[in-house]
Amino acid sequence: MSKPNNTPDKHTDYYAHGESMRSYFRSLLYANGRSTKGKVHVRDAIDVKRTMTIVGLCLLPAILIGVYNLGLQAQLALASGLTTPDVWQLLAFNAVTGGLTEQSGLLSRFAYGLSFYVPIYLTALSVSLFWEVVFAKVRRQELHEGFFVTALLFTLIIPVSTPLWIVALGITFGVIMAKEVFGGMGYNFLNPALAGYAFIYFAYPTQVAQLSQFVAVDGFAGATTLTQVAAGKLSFVDQSWYQAFSDPLWWDALFGFTVGTIAETSTLAILLGGLMLILTRLADWRIVVGVMLGMVLTAVMFNLIGSDKNEMFAMPWTWHLVTGGFALGMMFMATDPVTTAYTRQGKFFYGLMIGFMTVLIRVLNLKMPEGIMLAILFANLWAPLFDYVVARSNMKRRLKRNAA
């Protein structure tokens, strides 16, 4: 008796499944399995793969300087009497170089930082890839390359001493709860990297929010610029915004030789990479201008108000620019084309809200001096409303013009 034509063939399903999985990974390396045929079709040279590649290249200068700065800050900590940790990440480094010392050179500093950063990135990348494959298989969709940048951005905003299991948990939350449950790439309304970081920040503050996690040495008790100002240890009273240019600490923050996460340190490298995003039109300049203008106006407002008890009121906008993750948030997080507003006017007001909320959180919430993360997530929720208001305004204006 012959088998009905509609009866599933186990061998066919097995090979179809294998070919589907091979197609997923093949598309990551060089091309998509499906291509447009015929002379009447026009294909844009920019697809998801090329977009993510450009974003990664624009982040590369900040990554390289940030990794080097990890080694530099550890070396400076050793000079103050601290010691390097006895961890598995340094087994290869210690075997090759003999360990980090006060006399170690540039390559040793870079290799030291790389020893800590590479395991974090590989963990985030592999976990993110796992969930992307799972959801792509369940939905019978192609595998998008967005997880590369999601994992990259996530690892750039967390402390270098974050345990790997927390890294895996954070990226899992960001990918699943902020993106996949809403339909995957292009359907999420929250930035997955920021959502994952917000989750571990509030769920595991002792492993993520402690200052000792920012420098890979035992017993580090230093502070970032923002935490010093919030604690009243760094004053900007009677200091104008342009006086920052004569302060060596400001230049260290600009070039990236200060305490912080990898992507919080070199503001100059981030701004240069962000400029390339704008020139390639992968980032909208309206958002960047809006964030910058919102930050400057809000900082000036607090400078004029002043406070005898809160030093953050006197912090000039030039310092807000180079401290914390403001530059990275402005250039790479706020400009996410999926979670931002879509109308031109909406993009500008979306950026204004982020700049305003960032300074507002920094100044009024001294227990959380870094405000760019929550500001962007909050603005993500408002982005559709900005588009709605702009669209309604355009409709009313056109109806009024046609009625006349």
UniProtKB/TrEMBL annotation:
Residues spanning the signal sequence: none
HAMAP family, per database record: NqrB
Cofactor(s) recorded in Swiss-Prot or TrEMBL: FMN
Modified residues (FMN phosphoryl threonine): 224
Stretches that traverse the bilayer: 52-71, 116-135, 147-173, 185-204, 211-231, 251-278, 285-305, 317-335, 347-365, 371-391
Membrane topology: Multi-pass membrane protein
Keyword Translocase among record annotations: yes
Family listed: Belongs to the NqrB/RnfD family.
Predominant subcellular localization, coarse grouping: membrane
Subunit structure and binding partners: Composed of six subunits; NqrA, NqrB, NqrC, NqrD, NqrE and NqrF.
Protein name (database record): Na(+)-translocating NADH-quinone reductase subunit B
Enzyme Commission (EC) number: 7.2.1.1
UniProt cross-references to Pfam families, sorted A to Z: NQR2_RnfD_RnfE
Recorded catalytic activity of this chain's protein: a ubiquinone + n Na(+)(in) + NADH + H(+) = a ubiquinol + n Na(+)(out) + NAD(+)
Subcellular location: Cell membrane
Enzyme class: translocase
Keywords for the protein's UniProt record, in alphabetical order: Cell inner membrane, Cell membrane, Flavoprotein, FMN, Ion transport, Membrane, NAD, Phosphoprotein, Sodium, Sodium transport, Translocase, Transmembrane, Transmembrane helix, Transport, Ubiquinone
Domain of life: Bacteria
Its biological purpose: NQR complex catalyzes the reduction of ubiquinone-1 to ubiquinol by two successive reactions, coupled with the transport of Na(+) ions from the cytoplasm to the periplasm. NqrA to NqrE are probably involved in the second step, the conversion of ubisemiquinone to ubiquinol.
Keyword check for Transmembrane: yes
